[in-house]
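Per reviewer request, we include the raw input and output of the structure prediction for the construct analysed in the revised manuscript.
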Amino acid sequence: MKKFLSGTVLRLILWLVSILIIIPLGWTIVQSFKTTQEFFGDVWALPASLHIENYANAWSTANMGSYFFNSILVSVMGVLFSLCLAVPAAYCLSRYRFFASKFIMFVFSAGLFIQATYVLVPLFSLLKDLNLLDNLVVLALIYATSSLPFTIFLLSSFIRGVSRSYEEAAVMDGANRFQIMTKVIMPLIQPGIVTIVIFNFMAYWNEFLMAFTFILDDAKKTLPIGLQNLMEVQRFSTDWGALFAGMVIVLIPIVIIYAILNEKLTEGVNVGGIKG
């Protein structure tokens, strides 16, 4: 009976949280199909017709299309950079003991507590001196390095959960260390890699402060900055439908990625929690 009651209470809490998330999301989507007159008439009413032109206005007139492409480019490059840097580092720190290896792992773990605002000013000065401002590749590399502590910490827990017998068998077959990492370890920690891809992509996609500081050219700005610009413009032009359409455009990639990789994400979080 106690187990049944606790399960019922937990399900009710989950339903309540889901409703609190779905209602604002659904309300935003409904408003994106309204005209400004309908929005001010009754914010809870359904639109008389679906005004798809709101999305066209947000995409082209407000330049959201260019911002969207920039965000996709930076986020994908950032994810690739983070994996290329974190997988070898996590494998090395998890499998080998060498001078200062524990100290290096401690430094990476301490990096989890360092906020971007702490290094924003010196990093801006450095990029300015090196003429690297307004560079999307540099921004993606900054994203990747800033997420390395979390990425290495999580991947290390997955790698430590892999039996060394797989590597010993690969060595007997003549595989070198790089082949062991890429052809043995990485397939076995696939749930962890998928988890990292989703979390890092979401972080890079939604990041505002660094992109706002390091990207000054309007043509190279990312979607969060473009959405802020759209909010400023539509506040005075009172095209609220286009503003809500811009918000929905920002949500689309995250929803698609989560829908596709939902099971892998859940598996990765569960396995990582057990192994960690």
